[in-house]
Task: inverse folding
């Protein structure tokens, strides 16, 4: 106890956010069980970026590692937020989809195989526009197919967060795990401000952004299943727990009546303070449970 | 943005179902109807603008919370009903300018509403329903992911008013730090960036391009032809797998999506090692 007074917890923590995609994807596996697939030495790069004078990356910003987590077969796919903002191009998108399809095929053969997706992404890579959007649609289809057999767990740790079309992929996940530093939403504040003006969303208001999109709010409103510290052992432990937990009885995105009712009860004539929204949302929830 | 967003959707929804009204209890922005299509009884769905929508940022044909959850409920209803019987076709008529961009939307998790609709369409497809999308106007970004992109087969008109894209020109130019002119020039050379539906067809994602002289005023003959094409797409979907692999198997995809095919081949080989 006395030691703790001299070295607070955050000093002893091993940051997860500071890790790159490859390091992040490696921390979940049972010792000696994992190997990377289609790594940088395979050099499958974006064919579209060089045509526009943009330097491609040898793994297209997407790392795929297969192995065992908590004794079970699993694949981890991690997006590198530092490469093109984690955006989804033809190659990075297809790596994710193909990995999930192979996991699905293994499940159909009787080998229980889960997927963990590490999302640091702004969505579609605009230099590959329509192929990025198509890749997200196909990834979503593959999440839907796989999650019938085994959990698909989405982790967004920060600092990029998860936006655009990829927020729909997170919406389809069996479990969503976030840190306080992470954000999850469809449209970022800059886009909203550009489309509908600063009165709608002031993108310079950092506190407001985190109050709406941040992990703490998403967890408090039941839109994330776990809130973790930026601490690698803790993140890994929580992911292992969800892998072991298996498929949830009902996925969040299938609970249409529940969420449709919540939306129907909101007063949309005004903006909501995010803290107040927690109460609005959960008051509705308790009404539903009482019914 | 076309000020006519929604006109085409309404026109084609009415052409197929004989009316243009929402179901009881639904917002005015989602049209749902059941009608004969060849030998089938099909469910048609379309999102249209509602200038009085509850959410202020979803009054011009954007897809927001109400639209997402309504689509999800109306698709799931069919899946539930047909659980032990012949799986009816589900037809998404698409003319949507974008997802709704608003603070209320983000606070109340529009991403989940969008995922719920995509979940419903995708689950219907996996359950064996032929899900067919007909793009009659705009099919943009998150709106298309929500409504239409989970279909077994996608059809579109080869018309200048038809656009499938990840982001509208002005915003895409801003984000990639180019002028709209530069963006258009690049888009001519790079098929996935193009705003032209004929270039989109080169990506191999479309089942078929259809021609209609004026998609805002189709003739009786043209409506019958399009119904015939929907019927053919339904038959084709029923004869194939319930996943989306057909999007990579077309002749066009083999040409333009070589990198995708390479990823799949190599990853599978290494997976099995």
Result:
């Amino acid at each position: 106890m006395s030691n703790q007074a001299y070295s607070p917890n955050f000093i002893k923590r091993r940051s997860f956010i500071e890790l790159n995609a490859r390091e992040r994807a490696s921390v979940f596996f049972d010792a000696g069980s994992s190997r990377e697939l289609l790594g940088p030495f395979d050099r499958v790069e974006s064919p579209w970026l060089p045509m526009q004078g943009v330097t491609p990356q040898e793994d297209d910003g997407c790392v795929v590692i297969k192995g065992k987590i908590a004794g079970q077969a699993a694949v981890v796919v991690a997006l590198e937020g530092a490469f093109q903002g984690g955006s989804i191009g033809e190659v990075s998108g297809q790596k994710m989809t193909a990995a999930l399809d192979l996991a699905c095929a293994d499940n159909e053969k009787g080998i229980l195989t889960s997927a963990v997706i590490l999302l640091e992404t702004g969505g579609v890579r605009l230099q590959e526009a329509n192929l990025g959007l198509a890749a997200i649609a196909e990834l979503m289809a593959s999440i839907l197919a796989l999650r019938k057999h085994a959990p698909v767990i989405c982790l967004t740790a920060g600092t990029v967060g998860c936006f655009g079309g990829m927020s729909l992929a997170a919406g389809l996940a069996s479990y969503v795990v976030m840190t306080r530093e992470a954000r999850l939403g469809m449209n970022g504040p800059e886009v909203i401000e550009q489309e509908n003006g600063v009165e709608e969303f002031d993108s310079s208001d950092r506190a407001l952004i985190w109050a709406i999109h941040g992990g703490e709010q998403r967890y408090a409103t039941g839109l994330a299943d776990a809130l973790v510290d930026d601490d690698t052992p803790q993140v890994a432990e929580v992911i292992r727990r969800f892998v072991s937990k298996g498929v949830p009885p009902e996925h969040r995105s299938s609970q249409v009546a529940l969420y449709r009712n919540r939306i129907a009860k909101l007063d949309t004539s005004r903006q909501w303070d995010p803290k107040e929204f927690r109460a609005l949302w959960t008051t509705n929830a308790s009404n539903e449970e009482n019914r | 943005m076309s000020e006519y967003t929604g006109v085409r959707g309404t026109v084609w929804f009415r052409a197929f179902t004989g009316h243009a009204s929402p179901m009881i209890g639904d917002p005015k922005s989602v049209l749902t109807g059941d009608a004969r299509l060849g030998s089938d009884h099909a469910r048609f769905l379309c999102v249209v603008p509602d200038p009085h929508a509850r959410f202020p940022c979803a009054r011009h044909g954007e897809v927001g919370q109400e639209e997402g959850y309504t689509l999800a409920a109306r698709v799931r209803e069919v899946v539930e009903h047909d659980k032990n019987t012949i799986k009816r076709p589900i037809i998404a008529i698409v003319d949507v300018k974008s997802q709704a961009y608003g603070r209320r939307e983000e606070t109340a998790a529009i991403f989940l509403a969008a995922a719920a609709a995509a979940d419903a369409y995708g689950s219907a497809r996996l359950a064996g329903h032929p899900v067919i999308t007909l793009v009659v106007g705009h099919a943009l970004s998150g709106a298309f992911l929500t409504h239409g992109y989970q279909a077994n087969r996608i059809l579109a008109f080869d018309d200048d008013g038809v656009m499938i894209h990840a982001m509208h020109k002005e915003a895409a130019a801003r984000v990639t730090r180019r002028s709209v002119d530069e963006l258009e020039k690049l888009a001519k050379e790079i098929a996935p960036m193009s705003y032209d539906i004929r270039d989109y067809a080169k990506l191999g994602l479309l089942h078929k391009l259809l021609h209609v002289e004026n998609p805002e005023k189709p003739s009786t003959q043209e409506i019958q032809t399009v119904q015939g094409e929907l019927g053919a797409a339904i038959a084709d979907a029923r004869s194939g797998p319930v996943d989306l692999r057909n999007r990579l198997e077309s002749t066009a995809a083999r040409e333009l999506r070589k990198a995708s095919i390479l990823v799949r081949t190599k990853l599978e080989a290494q997976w099995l090692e």
The first helix of chain B runs from residue 7 to 17. The two ends of chain B are 50 Å apart (CA to CA). Chain B has a mean pLDDT of 95. Chain B touches chain A through 77 residues (CB under 8 Å).
